[in-house]
Amino acid sequence: MSVSTDQVRHIAKLARIAMSDEEIERLAPELNNILGWVEQLGEVNTDGVEPLTAVIDQKLRLRDDVVTEGDIRDEILANAPEAQHGFFAVPKVIE
Amino acid sequence: MTELTSKTIAELRDGFRSGAFTAREIAESFNAAVAAAKTLNAYTVETPEDALAAAEAADSGKSTGSLAGIPLGIKDLFATRGVDTTAGSRILKDFRPPYESTVTANLRQAGAGMLGKLNMDEFAMGSSNETSAYGPVISPWRRKGSNVGLTPGGSSGGSAAAVAAGIAPGVTGTDTGGSIRQPAAFTGICGIKPTYGRCSRWGVVAFASSLDQAGPMAKTVRDCAILLEAMAGFDPKDSTSLDLPVPQWEANVSSDLKGKRVGIPKEYRIDGVPAEINALWDRGIEWLKDAGATPVEISLPHTKYALPTYYIIAPAEASSNLARYDGVRYGLRVTGDDGLNGMYSATRAEGFGAEVKRRIMIGTYVLSAGFYDAYFTKAQKVRALIKQDFRNAFAHCDVIVTPTAPSAAFGIGETTDPLAMYLNDVFAVPASLAGLPAMSVPGGLDGQGLPLGLHLIGNELDEQMVLNAGLAIEERAGFIARPEKWW
Known about the structure:
The complex is a heterodimer.
Chain A: H1 5-14, H2 21-38, H3 73-77, E1 83-84, E2 87-88
Antiparallel strand pairs in A: 1-2
Chain B: H1 9-18, H2 23-35, E1 43-46, H3 48-59, E2 71-75, H4 102-109, E3 113-118, H5 157-164, E4 170-175, H6 181-187, E5 190-193, E6 213-218, H7 221-231, H8 249-252, E7 261-265, H9 275-290, E8 294-298, H10 306-321, H11 339-351, H12 354-366, H13 372-393, E9 399-403, H14 418-422, H15 429-433, E10 438-445, E11 451-458, H16 463-477
């Protein structure tokens, strides 16, 4: 399998990374090189093998569904590129 | 007081406790050494006042923990309250977390102060520290008779360089696919990645969550044991944190390996590895025999598939984890020309470097509709087989010894092909995929005068065996070489 420049453009869109045509052209062979290399996994017989989900066996814990930390709105907003009236502000999304 | 900076953490701790010197003297020595070593580009932020405040607390008897009086360097991947935490990325420029990571909080609780934040590959993605937004760290080591700048390895490159140069007695690192062990090997120091789940991931900027593990780097095996004891421990805030008591690794460290079996994996004899590295491996086996252990040949049949497995799983997890950098809640924002989506794309285009983008693209592709099973599920199945290889091997041995990396440190700018760079971690990645504790210990110098490391892999939760075998090698290798100061 190899990816075309159109596919690379589509992946960049999915990943929300703006890319120029030159960048797409440069990246396509790099990605193909890496994907071609990882495809050697096709040699491995994995019939009947369960995909690994937890590297160290352990029980998933549950906790009480209660707020453990709160009232820190301003601390959290302090790092926002733009905050207004106690909210994160973003460019207008509704016309 | 410059000689204080050449002491081990155990020596500094014991000297402080016996009154041979004060914590303030230790902190001032290291603060001065840090300020005089800017050429190395090891620190991204210096926090001398933090180190002094912890020293005051130690000298006045207010803090009495295991690390009272010890200042440390902290990899920039750990959230530190009120202090820039950028993961070596432009996209987290000026981010000051309103909270402290569990690992650094544990270290502070033990009395440690902070010398500053340490440079690293962007989001811990790299093996040379060249992908950092702050520029590369320069290794304090140089080839004999050469002024060429070398990499300290990566991604914990600033951490490794700081210990090797004596501008931190010990540091935190993180290891996703070798990022503690390979730089430790390149700079002639020790570094251990514990069993996955020993150290809390809470407050550690996420790269690949099923692989990320914090660990210490220091001059000696004992120092690593001291630091790991303070860093590790159950944390309810990390869902994969192990709910187990922290062993007394330092008190129990012993180089007597009588009755222990050392596994030598035949699949780690790979083409293209310099003869010096294989010769050091053989010496390492002899040293472990001398300590009482019996070498046994073992087989880890899926070894050659570990790197390609890693380069599906790690980018896949990274592409998910790094989706959070969108210019809304923290870090960089670049306003695009297409509303909200334009802002996301423009912010991420400008905020991420080339290697991070490459991995996000690979990860997005292998997780995308139609390709998920062929790549991601397949990789998770091979990962299960790699884990099973180690289970089978540990039925026949107690610890495994291999080289840490397939080369000594290389020059800055010398490795430009991404795949060639990935091969640096060929020996380190299998243990990461299996979640096992693993350590690099310096074994000797190569013909160019550069350090080479030996790599010890232990069974789940058996950090003690790794440390013990590490100590046995350390005692026999007699590695005391330090880089000659040129910075």
